[in-house]
Each structure stands twice: as C-alpha cells, then as structure tokens.
Amino acid sequence: MALIVHKYGGTSMGSTERIRNVARRVAKWHKAGHQMVVVPSAMSGETNRLLALAKELQPAQLGKAYGRELDMLAATGEQASSALLAIALQAEGIDAVSYAGWQVAIKTNDAYTKARIESIDDARVRADLAAGKVVIVTGFQGVDPDGNITTLGRGGSDTSAVAVAAAMKAAECLIYTDVDGVYTTDPRVVPEAKRLERVSFEEMLEMASMGSKVLQIRSVEFAGKYKVPLRVLSSFTPWDIDLNEEASSGTLITFEEDEDMERAVVSGIAFNRDEAKVSVLGVPDKPGIAYQILGAVAAANVEVDVIIQNLSKDGKTDFSFTVHRNDFQKTLDLLKGQVLPALGAADVVGDNRICKVSIVGIGMRSHVGVASRMFKCLSDDGINIQMISTSEIKTSVVIDEKYMELAVRALHREFDLDQTADTISK
Ligand code: ADP
Ligand code: ASP
Ligand code: MG
C-alpha cells in the first residue's frame, strides 16, 4: 500500500462522462489498497471562459485588486470539478471528500495569478486518508497570508499535484493527460513525434521552460527539488486496464542518467509562441547600458528571456531582448517613456510575431557541433535566425513565427527523432 497522487488535466475532466471514468480509475487504485489524493484541473475551457468574462468588464487600472478578483474567479473552475469528482466517486461507493486550496491549506505568497506555493499543511488530508477516504484537492490554487484565494499561473494544477506529493512524501505522482506521455516534440504539431519512455529531470526542466506545455515548469522544479517520482500518462486508456500495466505506461521523469539516455544527442524540441522581441536602437556603447535598460524593465516586474547586444559602430549599439507577449506593450511604453530619453537612444522598436525554437538533450554535453548542425538545418530551409541562446543542454533560436512549424519539423528530422506514424500510440 502506498500514498499515490493522481492529477487529471482539463480534457480528462472535460465532461461528466470523463469525470465518471476518472472516478472509476481512482476507485480501482483505491481498491488495490493505495491511499489516494487526486488533484483535478477545471473542466476544459472553463478557466478560459471565466477569464474572458473578466476581460469584458476589465478595469482601466490593472492593479492588485483586479488580480485578486481574477483568482477568486478562476479558482471556481477547480472547485466545481473537484466536487464533481467527489460526487462521482461517491456514486461508485467510495468515501470521498474534496477540499479547496485554502481548506487544506496550500499556502502561497500574494502574487495573484502567478502565486508560488510556500507550504502545505497536510494534517487534514492525512486524517481523511487514515479514515479510508479518497481525498480530492483542487489544482491551481492556494491561499495567501491574508486569507485571499490565489492561483498558480496557467497550467498550475501540475504544480499543485507535485507540491502535494512532495509535502506528503507520496510514493509517486502520476500526471494523467490527453497524450500518453512526453514526446520528442508536441505530437499535435509533428505527428511523427515519438513518446519517450524516460526523460531525465534536467531535460524535462529545459523542455518545460522552453515552452513544452505538457508540464508546467514549476511542477518540474518541485519534482527536482524534492525528488518526487513523476510520470506522465494517458487518461484515455480504458479505466479498467491492469493497474500494473497502467502504472508503468507513459513517460517516467528520471533523476539518474543512464547510458541509453546519453546516446541521444537531442532528446526533444520545444517551441514557444508566447514571446515578443524589443530592440533599443542606437544606444551609446558605454558601461551601465544593459543595466539601465534591463533594470527599468525588471523594476516593472517584467521577466526578460533571450538578450543580445550587437557590435558597436561609431560608439553606438543595438540592444535586443525578449519578454512575454503579455508584457510587450508595457515594455515598449516604458522604454519609450523613460529609458529612451534618459539614454539618448535613437529608437525603440518591437516585434511580437516571433517564436523561440529549442533543441534539448543531455547528449549535447558530450557532442560538439550540435548547434551548428541546427543552424545549417534552418538555413537549408531559408529560415533566418534573429537571436540565439544556449545552455549546456539546450540551444534556442528566435525566428519569425511563420516558420515555426517548418523549423520544428525540419529539426525533428535532422536529429533523427521521427518515427513511422503507425507506431505512435495515443
Ligand atoms: P492538461 O489539461 O492535461 O494539463 P495540457 O494541454 O496542459 O494538458 O498538456 C498536454 C498537451 O501538451 C498535449 O495535448 C500536447 O499537445 C502538449 N505538448 C506540448 N509539448 C509536448 C510534448 N513534448 N509531449 C507531449 N505533449 C506535449
Ligand atoms: N485550469 C487551469 C488552467 O487552465 C490550471 C490547469 O489546468 O492546470 O490553466
Ligand atoms: Mg496542463
């Protein structure tokens, strides 16, 4: 008997029929003798629907008070799906109870819409488990020090599940979703993508941070920090398949590097359409410029990703960086208003039709020439690289977004990641 955490995403919870399926699957695990904590997402489309309503009524000043209400609103999606799952379990004859984040309590800071979990008090959940109940804990939400409801950022139910698993020292956290594991790239973009049996924690972290939305980045960070055994698998298999077969399906996130994993130079390709490029042109090339530009951006709470500074010509240079698209206008306004006059720069321009494509693999540590192979592959397809950034196990390029799919497919082929379509099992 083990303590197991299951997480079910929005599509997996998308209708009462699917919720019934989830309940039957959870009941199967419970009847096999496991202590079960289940973390559901809102039913698919619900978070978008709620946030769109808020947008219709959006105030002119987007301050903290607005963020608070957005979280109050969005958290209802998970509250509803959690209660429905408890009801579906009760209908299966299982003693089940659901809790909102604040009832557990999952304590976070007060950064509304992107709060971070600080601690989890698991006493109530443990008492219910000891009494033989299945416990359902809402994904995506927590409570700040003043008792306000917070949410953890889009896709945050993954993080709730892993954090609960870490706090409760669960034997395993199983992330059930609408694909049957982590693929070499998003199988919806490249149908030839193949499922990885195992992926190293480091690679998963890079893939998630470079845009692979299959796991929210913070969930991978938590898994790494607390060594939570983590598996991504399908919720669309028949609920009554053999439990051991189910428990070993999907993709395992591993913490040890084995020899097989070293063999692949590139394990996966991630892409991200959420960024925009900002360039400050004709900046005087003198010490302190990067600080003056990026300091102002950081003070406005805007995260910066890829950065490049061009060679200086006649004492002037161009400085470019990427930010999240949601922060694009704010960053342009800020630079034009404050920084441009203070620096004596020539202009500030932006482009929000870019994307970032990244190749990821721990094999890159032991192979040279991987980046140049990537650049050649893109140039063979006539794709211009605007920015480059690298780490030990990843190379990312910023390109025009209209070439994104072409680039991902070409790189997938170049690094021998394709498989024949008929071997894909979903
Ligand atoms: P959930 O609602 O279950 O949390 P998400 O939509 O957040 O599901 O994540 C699953 C989706 O992630 C898949 O449907 C797939 O399109 C996308 N995805 C992106 N990159 C990958 C990848 N490398 N492997 C598998 N799925 C991926
Ligand atoms: N319901 C939230 C979202 O749509 C959280 C999640 O699904 O993980 O982002
Ligand atoms: Mg998700």
UniProtKB/TrEMBL annotation:
Identification of the protein by name: Aspartokinase
Binding site for ATP: 7-10, 177-178, 183, 188, 213-214
Record domain ACT: where: 278-357, 359-426
Species for this entry: Hydrogenophaga pseudoflava (Pseudomonas carboxydoflava)
One GO term describing the cellular component: cytosol
Keyword Amino-acid biosynthesis applies: yes
GO molecular function: aspartate kinase activity; ATP binding
UniProt-listed CDD domains: AAK_AKii-LysC-BS, ACT_AK-LysC-DapG-like_2, ACT_AKii-LysC-BS-like_1
Family assignment from sequence similarity: Belongs to the aspartokinase family.
Biological process according to GO: homoserine biosynthetic process; lysine biosynthetic process via diaminopimelate; threonine biosynthetic process
Amino acids binding substrate: 47, 78
Alphabetically ordered keywords of this record: Amino-acid biosynthesis, ATP-binding, Kinase, Lysine biosynthesis, Nucleotide-binding, Transferase
Record pathway: Amino-acid biosynthesis; L-lysine biosynthesis via DAP pathway; (S)-tetrahydrodipicolinate from L-aspartate: step 1/4; Amino-acid biosynthesis; L-threonine biosynthesis; L-threonine from L-aspartate: step 1/5; Amino-acid biosynthesis; L-methionine biosynthesis via de novo pathway; L-homoserine from L-aspartate: step 1/3
